Amino acid sequence: MATNIIDGKKVAGILRQQVREDVQEWVGRGNRHPKLQAILIGNDPASRTYVGAKTKACKEVGIESETATYPDTISVRELKDEIINFNRDDDIDGILLQLPLPGHLHPSQLIETIDHRKDVDGFHPMNVGRLAVGQPTFRSCTPAGILELFRYYSVMTKGKHAVVVGASNIVGSPMAIMLSRENDNGKATTTLCHKYTRNLTQHTIQADILVVAVGSPKLITGQMIKEGVVIIDVGINRVSDADSEKGYKLVGDCDFDSVCEKASLITPVPGGVGPMTVAMLMKNTLLAAKNSIYPKD
Ligand code: NAP
Fold this sequence. Notes:
This protein is an alpha/beta fold. It has 2 domains: 31-123, Rossmann fold, CATH 3.40.50.10860; 141-275, Rossmann fold (3-Layer(aba) Sandwich). It is built from 10 helices and 10 strands. The chain has helices at 8-28, 45-61, 76-88, 107-113, 125-132, 141-152, 172-181, 200-204, 256-260, 273-289; strands spanning 35-41, 64-70, 94-97, 161-165, 189-193, 209-212, 230-233, 237-240, 248-251, 265-266. It has a 5-stranded parallel beta sheet with strand order 5-4-6-7-10. Strand 1, helix 2 (45-61) and strand 2 (64-70) form a beta-alpha-beta unit. Helix 6 (141-152) packs across helix 10 (273-289). The termini are far apart. The model has no long low-confidence stretch (mean pLDDT 97). The structure holds NADP nicotinamide-adenine-dinucleotide phosphate. NADP nicotinamide-adenine-dinucleotide phosphate is lined by residues 142, 165-168, 170-172, 193-195, 197, 200, 213-216, 234-237, 273-274, 277.
């Protein structure tokens, strides 16, 4: 592996090991194993793969998991009732609603139905709000995992110019909040770019740290960045590849070869951010089991 490539698999492995030890200690004190309830709707192959990876990680760290699957014809009311039952179940610590959802189901409506104390994805408005005002919260797993990568690779953010491309509720927006606000691995001057940003290059070229989360292959090329930038490529895109058995390969949002030459550090796709997202989900589930974010009275 080239020296400037961030090894997300390795760092995620270290984090999972830490969670595993913490779970052992927690259970050793007489508590039950933490439990994650996943909700999977429809037959999207990528969603199935992601839920499969999360279930596997749960097993590895000693977290129990169950996946409830529903047809993509399920109504909003039926799904809300299911979520309410999971909220009420004291044996469930964390609830994961796998996105994207079929068109008739609006993520925000359903995310708000999840008890914020079980929102281990960190998407509930209560948790996003607490993030925005600097209170303890379930932090969205992907951006929180990126900050862990910064910690491991000693990437200093304070006073740097961080540019985030893509402003979704689950990645870009919470990333920008964390980078701009948090004391530990934050305090960067932060620019958030989105679909309506004019002249994207004018912003990306200034970045000391560039996080790209759009879902558009080769959106960022070598000409759009400056020498020495740290690049976090969050995008996961399937592009056809005749050489691969599956007929496709996964790529990020950056034109890897051209940006890699200039970057001081860069995450590969796959093997960069993805494993960190899963590891942070494990960490959040343990926090939920311990009532660490929302202590019981
Ligand atoms: P999303 O909800 O589709 O959001 C994409 C964001 O990019 C939106 O804010 C969109 O703006 C913006 N955008 C679209 N075209 C743009 C452009 N040309 N320039 C700048 N911004 C643009 O996607 P997401 O859930 O954030 O995910 C983004 C990518 O990351 C996807 O490829 C996804 O698969 C991947 N992902 C990876 C992980 C991981 O663990 N590695 C986790 C989550 C997501 P509008 O809202 O105005 O359309």
